[in-house]
Amino acid sequence: MSAPHLAARGVACGRGRRPVLTGVDLAVRRGSRLALVGPNGAGKSTLLRVLAGLDAPHAGVVELDGRALRAVPARERARRLAVVSQHELPPADLQVRELVALGRLPHRSPWRSDDADGHADAALERLGLGHLAGRAVDHLSGGELRRVLVARALAQEAEVLLLDEPTNHLDLRHQHELLAAVRELGVTVVAAIHDLDLAGRYFDDVAVVDAGSVSAPAPAADVLTPALLADVFGVAAVRLQHPVTGRWHLVVDPEENAR
């Protein structure tokens, strides 16, 4: 059996010196899409930063194709891993096309940020953002900025995409359009997602981050159950099947939760 595309083995990590997660064993198959779900503050963002190599684990090792991530040169890592953080604030004086073109830096000389190869414009068009190419970054709404940052990751053409709450600030239509576009890339994706319906629809596997640990990835249909909502989120829910698509959806029971 081949090595996982991205893996954590015995990883412990935290915020500063404070431990948040311990004993994390995670294996992400090449080309699969893994959703990290769990309560706010459980450590999803912390884990993503460690998987991306932005923070060092307190213990254990992260591997890329069976190779310790810390042994991968920074430039190679930048070519192979693309990261969209939750709270990134790019320089206000950049235009959108310039920001997205920065995704090409790992592939060429560091002093070039133009889009001579057209990747930035192609990424913008893919997400329906071509009309924003000449706009200043500080004139974007929160949702527009999120989509532009994902476009930068697409322009990077990395084989692993790490997304921290990519649908944050997006309206319903753009949530689905963005995740559908990501799904069509055919790359390995690990994303922190708070919307369980989106996790079930657009991701192959789900891992639950809660109480200092991370569950083994499993098919979304097996993980996203009323028992999960009760145990992890403390709310009662029922599972209903959509009459048209046949998909199963978790629906919070307001009467049960009001008791």
From TrEMBL:
Keywords: ATP-binding, Nucleotide-binding, Transport. This is ABC transporter ATP-binding protein. InterPro entries: AAA+_ATPase (IPR003593), ABC_transporter-like_ATP-bd (IPR003439), ABC_transporter-like_CS (IPR017871), P-loop_NTPase (IPR027417). One of its GO terms (molecular function) is ATP binding. The keyword RNA-binding does not apply. Pfam families: ABC_tran. Transmembrane segments: none annotated. Residues 6-236 form the ABC transporter domain. CDD domains: ABC_Iron-Siderophores_B12_Hemin (cd03214). It comes from Nocardioides zeae.
